[in-house]
Specification:
This protein is an alpha+beta fold. It folds into 2 domains: 33-56 and 73-190, Nuclear Transport Factor 2, Chain: A (Roll); 206-313, Roll (Nuclear Transport Factor 2, Chain: A). It contains 4 helices and 13 strands. Keywords: Membrane, Transmembrane, Transmembrane helix.
C-alpha cells in the first residue's frame, strides 16, 4: 500500500522530507542537537584562539556600519525557514507513523535510536499527509506545526473487522536555529478543527436565467476553462491572466444554476461589474461526476459581459459591500 502522497504545500515523503542541507539544531536529549553542539564548541575554541590577536587590533579601528539582517518572508507572514519547518515536521510525522521497532527507517534522521523502543511492531498505514498550520511560538525560536493524515484504523463498532481512514491531526514543535532544524517533542495527537454549524448566507440573491447574456458568458467560460471547449480568450477581459486548465480534466460540463449579487443587464454599460456564483456538473472521460461551484467577477465591455477573475471565495451577505471581494487570476498555464 502506498503510504504517502505529495501535498500542494510540500512533499510529505518521510524519505525526502528530512533535508540534508539542514543539520538538526538543539533539541531534547533524544534529538541529534546535542552531539552537533559539542563538535561546534570544540571548533569555535580553536577559532577563537587563532583570532584573538586580530580581534584586539580591530578594536583600534572605527567599527563598520552593521547592515540590517535580511529575513526572507513569504505570503502569510512566515519566513522561508518557518515554512521549511512545516515540511520538516511533515516528514517527521510520516517517518514516525511508518517506523517500527525493527525498522525505524528515516525516523533516525529526527531522533536518537535510543527512543525507538517505544515504536510499534507494525507500521501505521496512512495517506494524504499534509500541513494544516504553522504558528510561531512567541519569541522562542520554535514553531508549532499541525500536520494531518488519513490513518487506517479498525472500526470498533463493526463485527466484521472492517477498517476506515479517519483524518487525524498532530502537533509538532520544531526549533529553528542557525545550525538547522530540530523537533522538540514527539507528535502530539489533536482534535480535529471544529466545524461552524451556522448556515452560510451568500450575497448572490438574483437568479441569472438561461436566456441572459451573463449566463451565456459564464457557460462559455467554464466550458473552455474546465472542458477545453472553445477559445477562453474570447470570454475573458483584456489583460486577464486566466488560462484554461490543461489538460482539460472533464469531458462534459453543464451549468445548473447561476446567481448574481445584482441584476445583470443584457445591455450593460462599459465598466459595469457583477459578481456571480455558478454551480456546474462536470463529467470525466471515464464517466465520473462531480458538482462544483465557482465565484466569478464579470466586467462589461462593448455591451457584453466578460470574465475578469476567478474569486478566491464567494461573497457572504454579512461582508457588506460587494465590490471589494478579493480575487485571483488563474496561474499560467493552468489553475
Amino acid at each position: 500500500m502506498k503510504k504517502l502522497r505529495k501535498t500542494a504545500a510540500a512533499s510529505a515523503d518521510p524519505d525526502a522530507a528530512a533535508p540534508t542541507a539542514l543539520s538538526a539544531a538543539q533539541g531534547s536529549s533524544w534529538t541529534h542537537g546535542r552531539s552537533l553542539a559539542q563538535r561546534a564548541v570544540t571548533g569555535l575554541l580553536y577559532v577563537g584562539i587563532a583570532c584573538g590577536v586580530l580581534a584586539l587590533g580591530m578594536q583600534l579601528l572605527p567599527p563598520p556600519a552593521k547592515p540590517a539582517a535580511a529575513v526572507l518572508t513569504a505570503d502569510g507572514g512566515l519566513t522561508v525557514v518557518q515554512q521549511q519547518a512545516g515540511a520538516y515536521a511533515t516528514g517527521f510525522v510520516g517517518a514516525w507513523l511508518s517506523a517500527t521497532r525493527q525498522q525505524p527507517g528515516t525516523l533516525l534522521d529526527y531522533i536518537d535510536e535510543s527512543s525507538t523502543s517505544m515504536l510499534s511492531e507494525s507500521p501505521w498505514d496512512y495517506r494524504d499527509l499534509g500541513i494544516v498550520s504553522i504558528d510561531p511560538v512567541d519569541e522562542t525560536g520554535v514553531v508549532s506545526v499541525v500536520v494531518a493524515a488519513n490513518i487506517e484504523e479498525y472500526d470498533m463498532t463493526s463485527d466484521k473487522g472492517l477498517t476506515f481512514w479517519p483524518r487525524r491531526y498532530f502537533s509538532v514543535p520544531v526549533r529553528i536555529a542557525d545550525a538547522g532544524l530540530a523537533v522538540v517533542a514527539l507528535p502530539t495527537p489533536l482534535a480535529a478543527p471544529v466545524r461552524d454549524a451556522t448556515n452560510v448566507q451568500l450575497s448572490y440573491t438574483k437568479t441569472v436565467s438561461p436566456n441572459r447574456s451573463a449566463r451565456t458568458t459564464v457557460e462559455a467560460f467554464l466550458a473552455a476553462y474546465l472542458a477545453g471547449s472553445g477559445d477562453i480568450t474570447r470570454v475573458i477581459s483584456p489583460g486577464s491572466t486566466i488560462s484554461a486548465v490543461l489538460p482539460a480534466p472533464y469531458q462534459e460540463l453543464k451549468v445548473t444554476d447561476i446567481r448574481s449579487d445584482r441584476e445583470a443587464s443584457d445591455t450593460p454599460a462599459g465598466g459595469d461589474v457583477v459578481h456571480v456564483f455558478a454551480t456546474a456538473d462536470v463529467t470525466s472521460a471515464s464517466g465520473q461526476r462531480l458538482t462544483t461551484t465557482y465565484a466569478l467577477t464579470l466586467t462589461a465591455r462593448d455591451g457584453r459581459w466578460e470574465t475578469t477573475t476567478v474569486d478566491l471565495a464567494p461573497q457572504e451577505s454579512s461582508t457588506g459591500a460587494t465590490s471589494t471581494t478579493k480575487s485571483t487570476p488563474t496561474p499560467t498555464p493552468s489553475r
